[in-house]
Structure formats: C-alpha cells, structure tokens
Amino acid sequence: MGSRTVNPEILGDMIEAELAMKYGCYSQALEILVALACEYPSYLPAKEALETVYRETGQVERADEIARETALIRSQLANQATDGTQSVNAQEQIRRRQFIAGVDSIVREVYDTRDEEEVLRVCASKLVENIRADRC
Question: What is the value of pTM for the model shown?
C-alpha cells in the first residue's frame, strides 16, 4: 500500500478550521472549509468538518447533503480501488471496508444529533440510503 502525502497548505487550513470550530467561530471555519471543499472536492476531512459545522449551526439539510456527497466520494474511491484489484480476498477486504465506512458515517451522524426525534430521522434516512433492496 502506497503512502499518501497531503499538501501542507491543506493541513494548515484544516488546523485553522478545527481551532475555529473548537472556539465556536463557525463562520470562520465555514469560510475555510467551503474554500477547501471547492479547491479539493474529494478531500474527505474537509467535507466531514464542513458537515459538522452545518450541523452545529442548525443547517441540517445542508449537512445531510454534504454527508451524501461524502458517502458518494467514499464509494467512488472504494470502487477505484476495487477496479485495480484482481484477487477475491482483496476484493472481499475492500467490500468490508466499504461496509465499515457506511456504518461509520451512520454512527457519526447519530452522534452529532441533538434530540431523539432527529436521531430517529437520521437513522431512518441512513438505513434507506444504505440498504440494497427492491423498494417497491
């Protein structure tokens, strides 16, 4: 497995955004994260932090939209990895990673919710998104 390097400028911006979030400066964090997401559309940490900021500021619909984008990017990256893999064992490992990533996104969204009604809504919508079945 090759190692990935991240642009130091991205890391600096992410640290600045995380600090802004920690101290409740959501408008500053939002500005940084939107710029990062536009410049690097498949950089998942920026998308995940952006989703958190939207949730913290009560913009649930926008947070859900970002969550769907993040899941799509994860799926595309996993599919790209699968395309280059020939062995059955490696493909099974990738399938398990996709499943774990899906579960992780559900847990993260439930963890970020504020009340019982929202937890139920998030759970229901995530289950519908992730269940592969015929929906008559």
Answer: 0.63
